[in-house]
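Hi F.,

I've been meaning to write this up properly since the lab meeting, where we talked about keeping a consistent format for the predictions we share between groups. The idea is simple: the sequence comes first, exactly as it goes in, then the structure tokens exactly as they come out, then a line or two of notes. No screenshots and no reformatting. I'm using this chain as the first example so we have something concrete to point to.
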Amino acid sequence: MSASAHESANLPPPRVEEVSDGIFAYIQPDGSWWINNASFLVGSRGVVSIDSCATERRTQAYLNMIQEVAHRPVHTLVNTHHHGDHTHGNYLFGAVTIVAHERTRKEVLAAGLPNFPGVWTGPEWGNIQISPPFLTYTEGVDVYVDDLRCEVRHVGVAAHTTNDSLVWVPERALLFSGDLLFNGGTPFLLMGSLSGALQAVESLHGYGARTIVPGHGNVCGPELIDEVLGYLRFVDGVARRGKDAGLSPLEAARDTDLGRYADWLDRERIVGNLHRAYAELGGAPPGAPIDLNAALLDMVVYNGGRPLRCLA
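Output, unedited:
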């Protein structure tokens, strides 16, 4: 057994929380790299899932839990964005309808199979097969679970990625934020936009959610929105000062006291976030391609030259 698998075995097991009648969040501790949340909504004729998981083992455990709780087949899978921790397990759902933003489909296909040598200590992917969404939308679509309307909406800007969607259940004041929000983990903007994330996260206030299921971390209330906004504004300040001082993103990160954010999981994401912020300060539009490999390798350097901790 690898070190990653050994450590993963010592994590608390995933758990199911009924966040509203017939609606369940599947929370995977500890919510760090590649360990996401998924959710499922149970109707009389079947189940709608929000996202899959990063690895074959984790996705199969999620599917087993759905059957244990719901005793019904999954007929629809909504992907909140293209990252592999939310889409790699799509293929294990079989003949379900996979729904996502049109850009999500393009990015899943462009990313292909995971290949990040030397960046993470894991994960143990299993026999992943790429299975992109095949029912796509430009702005949004409504998905019904019996008579319960669920609004699936693209956020309209590049934020965590270029293709983030959220799922809003107005009748229950329940919001599934995808990776616009991390609870206890450091937000990550390398493939999205700092300015767009500030706009998108601020807009979440307008929903009036009482309960939020974030992309990673514990179920929470709307207080998380301001916590994440605080971090994004912190990154913006660091980026502006660092660029004005002629520092590289890595140098600016090393020169920064993370303060209240130092204990958040995956603190090395400050480096990737600064790469993205510097690009925008240099005139790049939100979501524009940048050198992802250079940013990931700088994150490893920031981590003392060690691969980033991953327990998936």
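Notes:
The chain has one domain: 3-302.
Confidence is low (pLDDT under 50) at residues 1-6.

If this format works for you, I'll send the rest the same way.

G.
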